[in-house]
Amino acid sequence: MQPGKGNFEKSKAYPNNFLWIGRTVLPALLMFILLVIAFWFYAIPAMRDNLIESKKEMISELTNTGYALMQH
Fold first, then answer.
1. What does the DSSP assignment read for 8-63?
2. Which residues contact 14 (CB under 8 A, 6 or more apart)?
3. How much is the CA Rg of the chain, to the nearest whole Å?
4. In Å, what is the CA distance from 28 to each residue of 21, 33, 39, 43, 48?
5. Contact 52, 58 (CB under 8 A)
6. How far apart are CA 19 and CA 16, in angstroms?
7. How many CB atoms lie within 10 A of CB 28?
């Protein structure tokens, strides 16, 4: 062993930097992409449907209030 190098020579598990990047960065990137896709196709439509439903309920209540005021 040469002085100053320690045990940090190229190991057989990671022969080059591209393999290391593929084993660490790629899974993290894939998980991020899956999270964005899940949010885009599940969470946003669910929030949109809830918002539309609450607006319909509000319009219905305002209509009922206006009708009740006109009856008096």
1. -SPPSS-SSHHHHHHHHHHHHHHHHHHHHHHIIIIIHHHHHHHHHHHHHHHHHHHH
2. 20, 23
3. 30
4. 10, 9, 17, 21, 29
5. no
6. 6
7. 9
Count of beta carbons in the 10 Å neighbourhood of residue 14: 14
Distance (Å, whole) CA 11 – CA 29: 25
Locate 4 and state its tokens: 């100053």
Q: How confident is the model at residue 22 (pLDDT cuts 50, 70, 90)?
A: confident
The label of the residue with tokens 């598990």 reads 13
User: What does the pLDDT look like over 2-18, one tens digit per residue?
Assistant: 555 555 555 555 567 67
Q: Which two tokens stand for residue 63?
A: 């209509």
Matching residue, tokens 């809830």: 50
